[in-house]
Automatic annotation (TrEMBL):
CDD domains per the UniProt record, alphabetical: QOR2
Pfam name, any one: ADH_zinc_N
Keyword Ion transport: no
InterPro entries: ADH-like_C, ADH-like_N, ER, GroES-like_sf, NAD(P)-bd_dom_sf, QOR-like, Quin_OxRdtase/zeta-crystal_CS
This protein's name: Quinone oxidoreductase
Classification via PANTHER family: QUINONE OXIDOREDUCTASE PIG3-RELATED, QUINONE OXIDOREDUCTASE-RELATED
Superkingdom as given in the UniProt entry: Bacteria
Keyword Oxidoreductase: yes
Stored NCBIfam families: PRK10754.1
GO CC term, one of those recorded: cytosol
Keyword field: NADP, Oxidoreductase
């Protein structure tokens, strides 16, 4: 038997239970992984509170790093003893070990440790698809990125700097502003002290930005549109403040023929070839030292509920991991 976090109903952090589970052997196309570290992400909150429905009872957690214990039939790219990492559905990473589809698991380079591997897969691959696939940045652009001191945000600060992109980031405190600057964010706006739309217009000389990356949702959506230059794109990739309310498409026309997209990581990594290419670029950026993964919080797996409380209270910065 193995330990894992399970939920039998949706709700607050209190619905998470630390229980014993029978993991079993991997079937065809599957692999059993013993976790060394598990990533904590806001998407876990969405699954826990029911914003993203799933059949219950269920597990939580989308990413982890560890060691392959066994492989099923037809699995050729992995073998027992491999160090691996993943960001994948279905949820279930909050566990000492699990059986899962092998196609979503990649080998972890020797230079990257388990803590870093668990903390970087979902967030790092998210920045990869945002910057390299959704609105491909080439260098020289000025962009707006909300929540610049979060796990995704701090990776984005560094990746933007490496690409020669001027990043404007929003944060909620002076401490988080300092953190974003230290990771390469060129301009930082504390939205509790300044109007971010006015500051973006000031920084860009009134021109606006060609792209806004927004994981906040309801509270920032209209302001994000107002920061865009004509023909600009709003990339809405999360809803930490709640879902974006219905809006008229005329809002896009009146602001200059804008684009809005709502991508997800799991669409981008659904094909094995795409996952391999995206992970290889992420591993290269981290292995070269251009991107450092700040693991600023560690919790025991059994304390996952407290980790969720702190995440929702915006007490965390950078990446957070759970340790089995």
């Amino acid at each position: 038997m193995s330990k894992a976090i399970r939920i039998s109903r949706v709700g607050g952090p209190e619905v998470m239970e630390y229980v014993e589970v029978d993991v079993g052997a991997p079937g065809p196309g599957e692999v059993r992984v013993r976790h060394a570290a598990i990533g904590l992400n806001y998407i876990d909150v969405y699954y826990r509170n029911g914003a993203y429905p799933q059949p219950l009872p269920a597990g939580l957690g989308m990413e982890a790093a560890g060691v392959v214990e066994a492989v099923g039939a037809d699995v050729t790219h992995l073998q027992p003893g491999d160090h691996v990492a993943y960001a994948a559905r279905p949820p279930g990473a909050y566990a000492e070990e699990r059986v899962m589809p092998a196609a979503q698991v990649v080998r972890l380079p020797a230079a990257i440790d388990f803590d870093t591997g668990a903390a970087m897969m979902l967030q790092g691959l998210t920045v990869q698809y945002l910057f390299r696939r959704t609105y491909p940045l080439r260098g020289g652009e000025t962009i707006l990125f909300h929540a610049a001191a979060g796990g995704v945000g701090l990776i984005a600060c560094q990746w933007a700097r490496a690409l020669g992109v001027t990043m404007i980031g929003t944060v909620g405190s002076d401490e988080k502003a300092a953190l974003a600057r230290a990771h390469g964010c060129a301009h930082v706006i504390n939205y509790n002290k300044e109007n971010f739309v006015e500051r973006v217009r000031e920084i860009t000389g009134g021109a606006g930005v060609p792209v806004v990356y927004d994981s906040i949702g309801k509270d920032t959506f209209t302001g994000s549109l107002d920061c865009l230059a004509p023909l600009g794109m709003l990339v809405s990739f999360g809803a930490a403040s709640g879902p974006v309310p219905p809006f008229s498409l005329q809002e896009l026309a009146s602001r200059g023929s804008l684009y809005v997209t709502r991508p997800t990581l799991f669409t981008h990594i659904a094909r094995r070839d795409d996952l391999e290419q995206m992970a290889a670029e992420l591993f290269l950026m981290v292995g070269s030292g251009k991107i450092k993964i700040p693991v600023n919080q560690r919790y025991a797996l059994k304390d996952a509920a407290q980790a969720h409380r702190d995440l929702e209270a915006r007490k965390t910065t950078g990446s957070t991991i759970l340790l089995p």
